[in-house]
């Protein structure tokens, strides 16, 4: 599958950005310690960086990647790449500084706060790339919703694993619940655009929903205080990422040019 690098890019980067934001907020709410924040933000940025690296395998000529910046302001893809770079640099610096406790911690906390704003911008930029009038299966509000939900579901589960148990699990549960609740409407919209392509993704969507149901249960248990086992939380995070990867494969399989 030619789009497989983009599958990993869009899921892993949004998972990393979502986890970064939730860990920062959890720290401000005194739900995670300074040490947990440093370690958590660093791990979130490693996940983000892994996704960013995956995207380079989609480039036919990586040496020309800088040309993508020429459309900043008018091209959604250029804006997405800029947001990726800015969040990656600022988020990476703040996470590394807090992890190593180098220099003035207030400076790195301020950088982390700026990175949160850049992370939100990045999450919003990604679905804009796929709002194409010529691709009716993509050019709808569900495209934005399913991609933002990736940041909630995966980011929440990852944040819970890294220490922000209650807040991360809450967002993970909300994301999973919304994703399951809107599934019928999403599939109906896809079927109206291309019944053949929608039906061909039935297996991918079924697998995604099954895993999201498990994630929902585990996150709800964590929210009410019945689950605080790091291994089980890590399993929830892995299932969340696997579920969104399955859904993203289906999404890219839906590509076709409307006539």
TrEMBL record:
Sorted alphabetically, the keyword list is: Membrane, Transmembrane, Transmembrane helix
Pfam families attached to this UniProt entry? DmsC (PF04976)
Indicate the transmembrane segments per the record. 6-25, 37-61, 81-100, 107-130, 142-162, 169-187, 207-225, 232-255
Cite the GO molecular-function annotations of the record. Answer: dimethyl sulfoxide reductase activity
Note the InterPro entries from the entry: DmsC
Q: Which GO terms describe its cellular component?
A: dimethyl sulfoxide reductase complex; plasma membrane
GO biological processes: anaerobic electron transport chain
- What's the name of the protein? Dimethyl sulfoxide reductase subunit C
- The protein's organism comes out as Leminorella grimontii
